[in-house]
Amino acid sequence: MSQPADKHTSILAVDVESYGDVRRTDRHQKVVRDGLYAALHRALDRARLPWGYHEDRGDGLFLLVPDVPKGELVASLPHELAAALREHNADHGPETQIRLRVVVHAGEVGTDDNGKHGRDLDHAFRLLDSQPLRDVLADSSGVLAIAVSDWFFEHVVKHQPAANPAIYRSYTVRQKETKTTTWICTPDSPRPVRAKPSLRLPAVQLPKLPKVQLPRPRWQAVVLTSLLLLAPTTNLLAGAAAPDTRCANPVQLNVLTSTEMAPALRLLALNFERTSYQADENKCRQARVLVMADTYGGAVDALGQGWSGGNDLRDHGPEPHVWVPDSTVDIDHVAARLAKVPGIGATLEQRPGIARSPIVLAAPKSVVDALRPVGGQWVTWQSVVQAASSRGGFSRPDPRSSSAGMLATIAYFRYRLDQPQLTPQVMSAESVPRLVHGAEREIPFAPNRDSGSLLCTIRANPGQLAALVSEKAVIDYNRGRQLGSDCSATARPEALTPLYLRTDSPVQDYPFVVVRWTDRPEHHQRRQVIDRFYEYLMSPSAAADLRNSGFRDPGGHIGRDEGQVPALPRPLPVSPESAFDEVESAAVAGSTHPRVLFAVDVGQTMGAPFQRGNRVQAATELVRRLLQEFGDTDEVGLLAFGRTAEDVVPLGTGQTSAIRKAARPDFPLTAGNSDVYGAIEAGMDRLRADRTADGTDLLVIVTDSATADVSQADMPALKAKVAGQGPRPTRLLVINLLAGACRSAGLTDIATAAAGRCIDLASVETDAARLANLVAIGLWR
């Protein structure tokens, strides 16, 4: 059987770095492969290059591009491919991010029954597997390392200014029977360009011509004579290039957005580029739009310090010119950060949002039946919290990962704290840590989850969980679309019902923000592109695309396929003066599982009268009341001390019932005096024995200090011991049943050394609520 003749073609070979890393599961590898093909398609499309014949190689592929000028493969394609990879990586976690080794070569490639073959194809794969290329990518902070063959560099790259030949470096390759030279560059992380030696032309003295009065000649003769005189002394005529009639470089526009908006915005950006190209009379590309995705916390951190962090380029991408966050809250948070950092000349010019998406409760049928929403769609914060408290299984996104998480947290905390706004003064109140911890027990946030990835968890446990997420994410879930970066599309699952909050409903408004750096000049062409891009995003065609992607348009209208949905709820007003950082910190701290050791004094003096009983009865009653703040997943324990300290209920989870049973009113007393200082040391030792958990430890001492003798204790050593903190802080709260003993026994100084307090208790009834707040402050602030 005859075979086609060999054909000269350009060869593009790619290989994913660390594709077979043990941390990549089969699922991760599938996401990587899908992302690789998507990035290549996107880059080739943007560079206006065809997707030619290709063969898959598991962790990579090769592509033959026979009918395209070779210079195009090293001009715009490297930058478009780097941009496409960064876009993929911004949406994915470490296990599914991609860095590529790329080889560009050209030569004869043949075809037989088994596919493509040829020495030039083999040569490309030798370069692709070479150690220099692996090392260059490993040492780079970028996502791409490109190697070209020596022939390709000498005949193509060197003569193509758009390929920037100066960033290539030569390396010797010894691979199997191959010994050759390759030229390697990292286009998105270029090394300093070597200085080129300047070329000095010899000075030429033109002879002075005698002054001769001649008749006025025709201009053509004068010009011709001048050129002929200059010709022997210069090479200008021979070396002059034809006027450059190619299109000017397109304006680069970097757009930062959320992980939720990024897929839709990338499609809109591509359509905008095409529309601008088609409208241009010379069919020139007007703009190159790079859409970068980041978490809520990542964008706030980078913009809040003026994109001046040492790793901002690596972690967040290039400096944005436009920012499309999910909510105006994001802008207020960044503005508050910028106001605290002097010397950063950044302004945020906000324009009306391009879409809408309210925060809803995504509920399975069992939860809908329990809530009994008004009209089948409307609920209140009160009904949601009651259902969460009685049923469990409710959650919300991480306030650090998405605007949906921050908005849901603000609205939820406002309800739980019974405050119209969460100002710094409100968040500093004594009761906040206790109330926030209670809130986190009922509707906890899912760490590192945004709306999509949180619903991905629900997809794995259908019918069991409910979540406060964006309406757009619920639409994606019900359509069976991909959720987050690692949750692939599926067949349509059993639908979740979006339930809408009748009052105080958070709404994402996706504002368009022009980021201006006042310490550098205005780029007028970019400004024009920004205006045209915004005009396009607000156009009817873009609004239709956004509705098809699951968003509402600025008017609140949603796609026709979503059935009957209520009008957009009235947005929850969030003050720009809100304490965003304090809200985030309170949520994170309040979500940690505490470790608390109660130590009750059982010395003889604790039998003395105290109100309607005795001191030990007041102590055990206080312990039982404070236990109400903890659940079975929290680590608690009970210690009794007289002359020595003994465990009554060892520190551990699931011990609340055992402590309530042990802390009975007739708690037995011991003979002799109590050693409160020894009890503090013993309690600290028990808590510090396990440093593996996150959060804060708290030792609660309940004593009368009646026999405490400061002169018999090594106070400096004890204060140094309690003050010595490791990775997990250990704090001290002393509750004294004898008026004035906190100071006389030196317990105030000891507690202060451990970042705690010593309180003289007046009454269990009147002081229990305040003590519960102090316990919470010790653990969650």
From TrEMBL:
**SUPFAM superfamilies associated with the record:** vWA-like
Q: What residue stretches are annotated with the VWFA domain?
A: 595-779
Q: Kindly give the InterPro entries that the UniProt entry links to this protein.
A: Nucleotide_cyclase, VWF_A, vWFA_dom_sf
Superkingdom: Bacteria
* Coiled-coil portions: none
Q: What is this protein called?
A: VWFA domain-containing protein
